[in-house]
Amino acid sequence: MVSTLSYKILFLLVNAYTLSPTTHASESTLLEVVCSKVKNADFCLHVFGSYPSVRTADLPELGTLAIDKARDKAAATKHDIVWRLSGPVLITNN
Questions:
Q1: Does residue 92 lie within any of the structural domains?
Q2: Does residue 44 contact residue 94 with C-beta atoms inside 8 Å?
Q3: 3-state SS class at 38
Q4: Number of independent structural domains in the chain
Q5: What confidence category does residue 25 fall into, taking pLDDT thresholds of 50, 70 and 90?
Q6: Cβ–Cβ under 8 Å, residues 69 and 6
Q7: Hey, which bits of the chain come out as E strands?
C-alpha cells in the first residue's frame, strides 16, 4: 500500500508545479496540500511526516522522498519474497 501511495503522491507532486503558491493556505505545508489530495490523507501525512525535513521541503525534495520511499518498500518486499520462497538469505544492493 505504501508503494501505491508513493506513486500517487509522486504524480501529485509533479502536477503540483502548475499550482500557484498563493493557492496554498499560508498555514498549510506543501506536504499537507499534497496529502489532502490523496484518498487517505492521514496515512500520507503519517508516512511522509515522519521525516523532520519534510515540513520545509519543496516539490523536488518531496518528489525525491516519495521515490526513495517507493524504492525502499520495493527492496523490502523483494527481500520478503525471496525469504519466503527460499528461507533467509542475504540480499546485497547491486
A1: no
A2: no
A3: coil
A4: 1
A5: very low
A6: yes
A7: none
In a domain, 23, yes or no: yes
Quick one: cell of 92? 546485497
For residue 62, what are the contacts with CB-CB under 8 A and spacing of at least 6?
Answer: 9, 13, 30, 31, 34, 48, 54
Among the listed residues 74, 62, 71, the one whose alpha carbon sits nearest the alpha carbon of residue 38: 62
Domain carrying residue 26? 2-86
CB 47 within 8 A of CB 2: yes
- 81 and 91 Cβ atoms separated by less than 8 Å: no
Grid coordinates belonging to 70:
517507493
Contact 38, 6 (CB under 8 A): no
> Is residue 57 one of the residues assigned to a domain?
yes
Residue 64 lies in a domain: yes
Grid cell digits, residue 72: 525502499
Whether this model's pTM surpasses 0.90 = no
Q: Is the torsion defined by CA of 17, 68, 71, 76 positive or negative?
A: negative
